[in-house]
Amino acid sequence: MEPKHKFKDRKEHTSLGMFIEALVNQEGGGIFDTLWWILPILLCLMLMGQGRGGGGGKGDPTNETVSESWYIPQDNETTYKTIEAAVSEWRKEAEEKSETSKGALSSLKGILGGGKSEDRFVVKETIPPRLYRMSDPTGPIYFELTEVEGGGSVVRATFSSGVRSKMAKFKAGLPLKIPAAPIGNRCPACGKPVLPEFNLCPYCGEKIIKV
Q1: What is the pTM of this model?
Q2: CATH architecture of residue range(s) 65-172
């Protein structure tokens, strides 16, 4: 004797099959009449999927804002050009990925009013070689550059955790250095060593008050 839950599942599947068969074989109908029944169901399923957080977008609570500061032993102009090149590569990769993911599902989303996906890494404001600001579905992205007296620059990057992996790869390709400093010259905010000529802490971005 079959368990009750298996009998129940079989009964539900049979009922669903009979319902679909009735829609397809109903008198006076056709494929278009069937589509009018199926499309609202598909639309509801898509909306339910979006409601479960299938995004990682701006409204996703897991996308926290991250801010990091790096000291780079090169001038602002060189660093700024490096940032521009990296963002251009990110944008190219996003466009290629978007092209390959297009298919029947994206066409159906367009028909049902799913809308066009947002462009990635869109430049919103640039003040060379000090500021590079972008918008992205994951959240805003900023690069703020400050020249260090005596050489080098401090980059303060603000971004969403949704692009943390890209930022980590970008950071790994930079000639980052930890400045050596005598004991006693430390940032008042994070306590890490800083050089006497620093106006900003290269670790946390805190302004250094010189006595």
Answers
A1: 0.59
A2: 2-Layer Sandwich (3.30)
